[in-house]
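User: Here's a structure from my thesis project, written as structure tokens. My advisor, Dr. K., wants to see whether a designed sequence matches the one we expressed. Can you design one independently, without my sequence as a hint?
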């Protein structure tokens, strides 16, 4: 069950654990259900899997645009596409963080909030680019 929600609604996520008693000695069978509740406690959405942001694609270009990143060259990350591969709507304000795990390319971590709700299976092209210097 999913519905469109306004930007003003705040979501609260609750995890519900369910189980079924069994006469088996193997234990109980169960499941997890995630609930998104509005400010008034009304159910907005429920699913067995949370939202999950996944970077689907992006472009990296150097200022020389020759495919080789030289020390001191300015590099840009652009056309970053985010996909919600989870089972619930990704809330507005969820953040994407860009950082460098490689010590040969250093730049300050960059954080960009999602400007709206992103439904499961939908994609969003971020309208920005990140620029940094290769060392």
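Assistant: Designed independently from the structure alone:
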């Amino acid at each position: 069950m999913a519905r469109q929600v306004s930007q003003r609604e705040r979501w609260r996520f609750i995890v519900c654990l369910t189980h079924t008693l069994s006469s088996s000695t193997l234990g109980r069978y169960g499941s997890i259900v995630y609930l998104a509740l509005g400010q008034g406690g009304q159910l907005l959405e429920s699913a067995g899997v949370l939202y999950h942001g996944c970077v689907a694609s992006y472009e990296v270009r150097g200022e020389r645009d020759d495919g080789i990143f030289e020390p001191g060259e300015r590099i840009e990350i652009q056309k970053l596409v985010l996909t919600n591969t989870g089972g619930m709507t990704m809330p507005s304000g969820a953040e994407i963080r860009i950082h460098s795990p490689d010590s040969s390319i250093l730049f300050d971590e960059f954080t960009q909030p999602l400007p709206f709700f992103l439904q499961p299976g939908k994609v969003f092209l971020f309208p920005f680019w990140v620029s940094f210097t290769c060392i």
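When you compare it with your expressed construct, this may help: DSSP finds no helices and nine strands in the chain.
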